[in-house]
Design brief:
The complex is a heterotrimer. By secondary structure, chain A is mainly α. Chain A is 45% helix and 5% strand. By secondary structure, chain C is an all-alpha fold. The chains are: A mainly alpha, B mainly alpha, C mainly alpha. Chains in contact: A-B, A-C, B-C. Chains B and C meet through helix 1, helix 2, helix 3, helix 4 and helix 5 of B and helix 1, helix 2, helix 3, helix 4 and helix 5 of C.
Chain lengths: 794, 221, 226
Amino acid sequence: MEEIRCPMCGKPNPDHLEICQHCQARLKPLVLSADESSSGEANDADTGLPDWQPSDQQDEPTSEDETALEADSEGDDWLTRLREEGDSEPIGLTPPDEPPETEEPAEEDWLLRIREMRDADAAPPAEDDSSSISDEVLPSWMTAQEDESGEQETSESDLSTPDPPSTGEERAEQLDAPASSAEDSELPEWLTTSEEGAPPTPLQASEAEVPDWLSAPEEDGEEDTPEAEQPSAEPPTPATEPGAELPDWLTAIGEEPPDPELSGESEAEIPEWLSTAEEIEPDDFPKESQPVDDGIPDWMSGVDDPDAEPDLSTIPAEPDPETPDWLSGLEVEGLGWPTDPSEADSPGEDLEPDWLEEIGEGAAPGQVPEEASPSPFLPEDDLDESVFEIDELTDLLSGADEDLEIPATADDADGLPPAELPRWLEAMRPVDSPPEGTGDIDQGQVEQTGPLAGLSGVLMAEPEIARLKQAPKLSSKLQITPAQQDHVRVFRELLATEGQAQHVPQPIVVSSQGLLRWLSAFFLILVIALVVINEVQWAPRPPLASVPAEVLNVSELINTLSPQDPVLVSFDYEPGTSGEMEAAAAAVVDHLMLRGAYLTLVSTSPTGPALAEHFITTVQEEHHYVSGNQFVNLGYIPGGASGLLGFVQMPQRIRPLSFDGMNAWTTQPLRGVYALSDFKLVVVITDNPDTARTWIEQVQPKIEETPLVTVVSAQAEPIIHPYVGGENAQVRGMVGGVIGGASYEQVTGKPNLAQVYWDALNFGLLTAIAVILIGGVANVFLNLFRNKPQGEAS
Amino acid sequence: MNLKLKSPISTAIAIGVGVVVLLGYFFGGDPAGELTTLGLLRDFLLQGAIVWAAVAMLVGIANLASVHLGKVRADEEGSFSFILLLSLIITLGVGLYDIIKTHTDQQLNFQRTSWIFNYIQLPIETSLMAVLAVSLTYAAVRLLTRRLNLLSAVFIGVVLMLLIGAVPQVAALAPLFAEIRNWILQIPTMAGARGILLGVALGTIATGIRILTGGDRPYRG
Amino acid sequence: MNAAEMSIADLSGLLLSFSFTIFVFSYIFGDNLLFRLATHIFIGVAAGYASIVTLYNVILPQLILPLLSGGRDEMFLTISLLIPSLLLLTKISPRTSRLGNPAIAILVGIGAAVAIGGAIFGTLFPQTSAAINVFEKNGFINGTILVIGTLATLLFFQFSTRGKESSLTGMTQVANALRWIGKAFIAVTFGALFAGVYIAAITALIERFIFLWTFVKELVLPALLR
């Protein structure tokens, strides 16, 4: 029992059923007659698989088949749609939306009518079984093509097919087995037939699949279009009877001369239309035609042409932009195919339709018009190289409106023949075509061109797509509006001012602060200068009773020294504080010299040796101490704490020579001294609390009973104070700053360098305190006045 | 402890040298006062530290010169860098001449170097310290304009009291200010300074231990 | 300072000193060319002078002269000192800088050990002992202030964690109070340091004005009055 595969759900059904038992879809087309529908071949065609699916029974799908596949898959839709609208109203141009399965019973009439006419014109070759099998699924118009192509057999494909089945039996053997076994065949039989180079198509088989409207045009075309009569003179053409409903372009399809490529190209993978294009010399094609071939139906190329012949033969069955090229090619071929059979001998020329020739007339062979491949940008010659320079960008923007270029449209292109709207299409318009100008495309109000001309509110994609136009020249220059240009100008001004130094007005507050700074400096300097210049001695010396204990301790320790006792004196201060340190240490060193102590000078600062030399030879010049006799300068000990500890551990190894190059340890001041503990007193003169701490930490624990006293700057005094104390303290005595030096002078009763500073220090400190207090108060008032307006303003 | 031995040789050297010197503090000499091996090793390292510290200072000065030489080449404040390099080179030249002269004459002959020191370095550095007085005066004035909290009030109050107490005429006229100054220096200041010293000592110990255990390696680079 | 008794070198030196003093004082009116000129010259001269002193006072007697005229032991000792010194010199160039790391490590190791010993024996033990014995010398009140101030300041340095307010226990509240007291003592100490620095700076200012006035009085004015 044979089965029918449901076209909807794909499930097998018994042969006798007309409606799928699974999905209730119709299994047999309504247009088929009872005898036709009962044939197994017809069942094969209705296996449920789409017609365009290749069948296993076919050897290989060819490029022609692929072309037909695309055509069929899309053609089914628009054909069905066309069929639907053909009965009720003039041929609709709306793209097909519904699948072909939704065929209406109303189609039966016209389909049957076509079938009847086909039956009447049935050719004798229909006797062959195999041909009848193939013709069942092959449309009649295609059959006509095959018919003619089979006669000519001039294509390469035919040559490439080594042994084309020439007889019906052979074809039947090839077709029967796959047809019965391969229900999943994807290629329709009519394609198989065409692949096999089927002989002229029997119409009785094609009627099963071909609707009436497709058959009718073949006949109608002869009536309406005289051009179509010539091809119709070909003997096997069935379209000899006029049809009333179909346009003659469809008739022309049936009458078109056999295309050698179409008929014989079974092995080539390139679609027919493409292979045709390949055969044609590239130079023969004007470049403007490329957009046409790229998907725009050829028939639409003449839409805009008002002079186009309003022949119904030029009316495309489907004005959908997605109309396949093969159909467009067929349509054009129907229009301009050479009637002289001799012309068909040269495939390249034959394949070139009239419209292509017309287009090609504009361009000489071998020459490609500039409009052929318009670049989206301006040619390099037209481009200003500075456009892409950042610095010049604003200039470009500023002049953009001047350089504004309106992209050229296809209307400007010469040589493109505007299409003429056919009469029947003119009649389809719901309203009269609006007058020129009313259908402004830019406004999107009324469609001006195409079949939808006169309709308002339609999407404007059609004219943009359908029109043959030159690709617009796109300028690389920006198109800006005047408002944007204003913004650019403002931005340029901002950029220009950015590179210029702006004069920042000094706020009043800053000037007041600067004034305050200058005033404080002025008063401080003025008072000190006056005191120094006048050499006043108004400030009372510190009373002896108020002399700190640490200062007294130093004096007492020095007083215990005997003449020629070795004393180690460290000059560890920087030149910056030399004034203060000299004033503080002058009395102490003077006291040491008065006691006749031999001094050994050392320093952990590079500048210390020079300061020590300067101190001994200048500040204490009166004692006439001589290097090597009363004092020796050991110089600089680098390394900080490490160097000091090394000096403590092995002084003779660390400092073998004096600063002036003598063997220090053989000089009088160091006689009998082998370690630091041999010194009777260690005096550290420093302005740095860290240096003082290093001496205390590294040296004091090693010198055992030798007392260590310090003469420190006022800035180091607070930190060193915890080390200072009585008999058991690490630092037995301390003299701090000029005040300590003055106190020490009071103790020794001998005015020294501290006295020089005393009055200046007295008035300088008074001035400083006054400046700080007055300045602070003034600043508070300034802040108040400054904040008040801000607060009121806020 | 996370020991990342990125520079194992340097770390081992630092740890070994540090441990030797530290142990030398305790076991550097025997009861008779003679140096032990540890003491000898410690002394050698201490002597070397002096020499190496001197070399390190020269390296630092060379680095300073190279930096300013680069600035001169790059024309980045090149004029002042050139002046700096020029003064450095002149001082070095004069000093080297003095050194050679001292050794050839077998007597101290550093007059030229002392001239540079006494007439250029000393006055500039002292003047910089003097300008600091003006800046500190202005800073103290500004300090009063800030919003004073208790601590800043204590700070500025102590400053003013110590300055007032240091003025001889004020101390003579109002000995109370001098007594207050002495008390501030003797009691609260010493308490704070002792706390700071102890904190610094503890921090020094902690940092030293970190170095000696390899936890801190400032010699990488 | 008498111009007639002075050499040209001393006179020019004094003029230079006077000029540089004025250059630096111009900073009172803000940073300027003269100030920057003086400071750059100062840096160059100070670096050069330190180099000369180091070369003359340390490198020559410790590294160069023993190699030239020392005995075998002294030479061996000097060579052992010279090798790390040469490694240190590689620090001059960034390319060879890594070679000097061991020498730097020696210096760091010695310095760390010396600092630890000095901190322990020079500050930690003596100052802890002195902090304990403050009552004998300063009385109860001052002694109490000294102890509390020392501990509070020490706690301010050492107590660095801060818990949430809600989880404050009695000990942490006391510790926080001590920290605040420590801050107050540190403020007092810094105030004393500021006053000391200020006095030192004013002393330096006085010293400079004494120099300027001496220069003018003994060199400029006689020249003008002459």
